[in-house]
Amino acid sequence: MTLLWIALLPLLGVIVPVLTSGRGRRFCSLATAALPALGLLLTLAQLPGIAAGESLRFAAAWIPSLGLDLALRLDGLSVLFNLLILGIGLLILLYAHFYLSPEEPYGRFYAYLILFMASMVGIVMSDNLLLLWLYWELTSISSFLLIGFWSHRSDARKGARMALTVTGAGGLALLAGLLLLGDMAGSFDIDVVLASGDAILADPRYPLMLGLVLLGAFTKSAQFPFQFWLPHAMAAPTPVSAYLHSATMVKAGIFLMARLHPAIAGSELWSVVVSLVGMATLLYGAWFALLKTDLKAILAFSTVSHLGLITVLLGIGSPMAVLAALFHVLNHATFKAALFMSAGIIDHETGTRELGRLGGLRRAMPVTAVLTTVAAAAMAGVPLLNGFLSKEMFFTESLSTPVLGGLSWAMPVLATLGGILSVAYSLRLVHAVFFKPAREAPPSPPHEPPRLMRAPVELLVALCVLVGLFPAALATGLLDMASQAVLGESLDFHLAIWHGVNLPLAMSVVALMAGIATYWRHGDLRRYLKGFRSVDSRLVFEDSVQSLNRRAEKVLTRFEGGSLQRYMAWLLLASLVMGGIGLAGMGPLTGSKGNQPIDGVLLLGAALLIFGGVGTAVTHRYRLVSLILLSVVGLMVSLTFARFSAPDLALTQLSVEVVTMILLMLALFFLPQKTPRESSPRRNLRDVVLAGTLGFVVASLNYAVLTRDNAPISGFFLDNSIPGGGGHNVVNVILVDFRGFDTLGEITVLALAGLAIFKLLNRLRLFMPHSDGEGRVWSPDRYPAILTSISMALLPLALLVSAFIFLRGHNLPGGGFIAGLITAVALILLYMARGVEWAQQRLDFPYQPVAIIGVAIATLTGLGSWLFGHPFLTSAFGHFHLPLVGEFELATAMLFDLGVYLAVVGATLMILANLGKVTTSHRPTKEASQTSAAANKRLTKENR
Amino acid sequence: MESLYAITTGVLTACGLYLTLRGRTFPVVVGLTLLSYAVNLFLFSMGGLTTDGAAILDGPGTYADPLPQALVLTAIVIGFAMTAFVVILAMRARSEAGNDHVDGRKREDGEGRA
């Protein structure tokens, strides 16, 4: 449980600054620090147990089907990183309190920072590969927010985008790699993965997996050739640079390599790739650190270089090399965070970070000068400081590694070269800022920072010195734990300042001397390099992203040019290809079941259907004619249903046909009566061929199915309809009972369509013609007398019929859908016969609530079954006896059907009545009452 | 009988699809309606074509497959709702763009603004 709290506390801490930012900066900073501090204490409390060899675990299933568990672990490696993340994180908070100006949204900043902290803690504590990846992505996102915190600055936006692109792409590669890894190990559980190293190495997919995982690690840890994003991430506020880009986030890749070391590191491929990439990064970073003139850029490139150093050590992979890597992680985090914060202080107090504008600051900022000098000396590897120790270990390992076979002698040479450059840039940093006389005055007069702003730097520098002086006492315990977690065995090692006169010491001496010499002559070097064209990686990156965008756009416009006709053609072509392939591979078209005989009625029906369909298509330019022919098809479809034993369908189709026609007629009133001749003969031919071929495919498909024996699942419904659903009409029982959930979804869609239409009609300004397409004025006889009187007489009859159809639906053809449509048709007839004005006065209620109440009744009926401990939408029924009426049946399905009925009535009327109202002053508007008069006036004007 | 049914479905599909490829909204709506008839007929036939099947359970006998019927029944109603939505969308598009072309852009060659 403690583990869960350690991981959870920082995550909860994300909301603290948001909640407290209104109560003053000091309060907000303190409150923000509380939860991470608690997490740090909890971690520290676990130290004795872990030192004794315990490894703590917490696991809870999250999505077991994916292998994703909420599994946490706390071993030596996690503790080492947790202390870094939480400890330095707290120091950064203190520093940020002074760094940010009061006008800045510090609450937001803290929230991002803590979110980042929580995700880092999650990475190092994850005991499940997928969980680790989730946290990994969270660090990418939170670092994006942090780098782009000053979003008004273009360089911050670009830097953030670049970091997100590179680390995000790496994250995707990592996901693929981790999925492969989990598949190879048979589990995403990290313990299992670490234990199955042999199986993983023997797997043929190992190289692919390794490549993908390393891609993730290298992008995150800014290894060559992905190093370019890190210097541009320096557009972030300095606390962010100090935290993310020195101590934590860039170490996530290192952590991943260390964590998975037992499982994936045992191959030659690993050693060669990782150590070479690391070495390239080490030299590349060191070289550019020497050339840059911006304080933070120097530190950024030196970070790249030191990350390379750690990577080399992990690539070498011997137990002592791993130990050295972990030690350097610790040391680098301390001195580099201190240096970044010093750089921030200098920037803060002088207003510039350019080396050319700084100089002689030792007089104005003596304490900062001393602190920075010591930290830089640790970075350079000066004896008696912590950096010296891990660098010596690095030199020792580089001497003994056989990684490059016959070329292995190059490793110590390159390592020394890196050392030389490192001394040179560290010296330059300190000398140029504090000791060299200033060429010009900095933008604001320099002075020491507030006492507490300097405190984190002081603490870290003190650590550098103390660890450098007493390594055995201070670092052994922690390193022993961490290396044990990586290597699986306790390592016999002894940290000491003095190992006697040996080759590594000689390499250090050479590095120091040559480094000083290099800095001394570095002016010449810069003059020489001016001859080369410099490449701004940001411009290269932006250019490549933009050209990628342009190309994508080109491809896109070929398919998505804004022409619906073209989309349709593509869509149909695609389905033609798919359907054609399927049919071609099917074998004989006619199946085992023969044709039933054809009779005259069928032939006539089919002829009428075909006539109607072809007629609709041919006459489509004359819209009214086309519509009338369409209604022929609709009615014939209804008869077809009746012919093939589906009375429910026939009734539904008939009533829907009526409302559809009314709807389309109404719509046609507002649309042009004729379609202009637009399509070229070529286009026409293309469409005819495309549609015709697809029709052919559909016909073949239909025929193939119809002539084959199938094994329907309907037997279940036929058998269970009476005992399970209490109804004799199986279709209705399926609708309201077996598949009630589908029906619920469908009436919801219906109600939503009605609401959407209501919204679309809102404030719709329509062109209302006063004559038809031929120029004939509409008949002034608006309400024909016969229709008027018949409709009045029909209304009660129709309502009676609909009630009858509804009630008998469970046992005889009928039901909520059909009854609802009949009711709707009867009411619509009233509207048509007497006009909207007349009907509006008598039917003065909105239809939206009717539809919504219908859906609500159906849902509540379904929910009701929960009350009785049954699953959603379980129906119940019973037979009751009433005197006079006799035996009758009541089912909850009936209540559900009532919901269906109301939804259908409401939705249909919402659609048709509202469309009808558009022609009158009752048309829907947002402020119906106030504007109706005005609308009326405007309409009459338009009509004229 | 099966072949005749299949041919009818195919012809209706072809006519519906041809209309959906037109450039003006109304023929497209009509085409969609026609297409939905064809699709409903197609789906309905998946249970086989039963002549004189009983619709109501009443002892043993020949029953038409009720499952496709139930599916098509809701499909008919939903089809109406969708047709209605598209048709109103077409009206709205005409009111906004000034023409009834399916691309919904204001264009010079279209009819004048309403």
UniProtKB/TrEMBL annotation, chain A:
InterPro entries in alphabetical order: CPA3_Na-H_Antiporter_A, MnhB, MrpA_C/MbhD, MrpA_C/MbhE, ND/Mrp_TM, Proton_antipo_N
Locations listed in the record: Cell membrane; Membrane
Chief localisation class: membrane
GO biological process, one term: monoatomic ion transport
Domain NADH:quinone oxidoreductase/Mrp antiporter transmembrane: from-to ranges: 126-400
NCBIfam families assigned: PRK12648.1 (NF009288)
Name of the protein described by the UniProt record: Monovalent cation/H+ antiporter subunit A
TrEMBL record, chain B:
Major subcellular site: membrane
Transmembrane domains' residue ranges: 6-21, 28-50, 70-91
Single GO cellular component term: plasma membrane
Domain of life: Bacteria
Record has Transmembrane helix as a keyword: yes
Annotated Gene3D superfamilies: 1.10.287.3510
Keywords associated with the record: Cell membrane, Membrane, Transmembrane, Transmembrane helix
Pfam families per record: Oxidored_q2 (PF00420)
Annotated membrane topology: Multi-pass membrane protein
Keyword Transmembrane assigned: yes
Compartments (UniProt record): Cell membrane
NCBIfam families tied to this protein: PRK09094.1
Similarity comment: Belongs to the CPA3 antiporters (TC 2.A.63) subunit C family.
Protein name as catalogued: Na+/H+ antiporter subunit C
